[in-house]
Specification:
Length: about 280
Amino acid sequence: QIYLYQNRLIPLTQVHISPEDRGYYFGDGAYEVFRVYNGILYETEAHFTRLKKTVDALRIKLPADHTALTRQLEELVRANRLQEGIVYMQITRGTAPRVHAFPAGAEPVLMAYTQPLARPVATMEKGISAVTTEDIRWLRCDLKTLNLLPNVMAKQTAVDHGTGDVVFHRSGTVTECSASNMMIVKNGVVRTHPADNLILHGVTRAVVLRLAQSEGIPTQETPFTVEELLQADEAFITGTTVEVTPVTSVDGKPIGDGRPGAVTRQLQQAFEAAIPTA
Ligand code: PLP
C-alpha cells in the first residue's frame, strides 16, 4: 500500500507521523474524501475548492496548488492500481509541542491513501433506515475539519439502533446525516437544507441538484422539519460513498410507502449515467 506523504509516494511502513502532530492532539486539520470510478478521480475540482475553503478558514497553508495536488493524487491512484474506491487526504497544521495557539514555524503535514471500495449497490437498491438525533455540532459544519466526534457518536447511535444512519436535526429542523446530506421529495419537488454554515456542502449534493435540474425535477434549498421528513413521499441521502441512497424509514416509521421512490430512482439512474468511464 503506497501513501502520499508530504509530496512523496512511499510505502505505509515509511510514513512516520509524530505524536506531536496537531491532528493527533487537537484534530487541527482538514480532510477530503474523493471517489475513484474506473481509475478516475471524480469531481476533483469541487473537492479541492471545498478543501481550499476549509484550510483558508483554519489558516493552514496547502503545500501545493490544486493542479499539483491533483497530479499527486492521480499518481497515488495509479501506484495503488485503484479502480473502484476512495482517496482519503488530510492536512494538519503540523508538529509542535502541545499549546493551543498556532505554533510558530510548524509546517503542515499532508497525507493521503487509497482504499478499494465497491459502489453501495445493495443499499442503493433496498434503502436504509435512520434514527433522528439532536445535531450538537459547532456552527461551522461547512468546514471539513478532522474534528468528527459528534459524527462518530451519532453513527454509533445509528449502529446501536440497528439503523443505517442518523438524521441530525437542530431543534426539529433537519440539517444532514453523519456523513451525508439529506433530501426529501414532496409532491415531485426535491428539497434539501440550504448550503449554509449548518451543513457540509456535499459534492454529491451539488451533483444531484444539478442532475435534478437537467431531469426537469424542481429543487428547493429550504430547511425542512423532522415532521416534514416523516410526511415526505420519498427521502434519500447523498454522499461520496453512499451516492444516492434511499431512506425508507425514520424512527421506525415508513417514508412514503416504505420503499425507494420513483424520483429517487430517476436520480440514481441519472447519477449512474454520469459516472466517468475509462
Ligand atoms: N455531510 C457530512 C457531515 C459529511 O461528512 C459528508 C461526506 O463525508 C457529506 C455531507 C457528503 O459530502 P460529499 O458528497 O462531498 O461526500
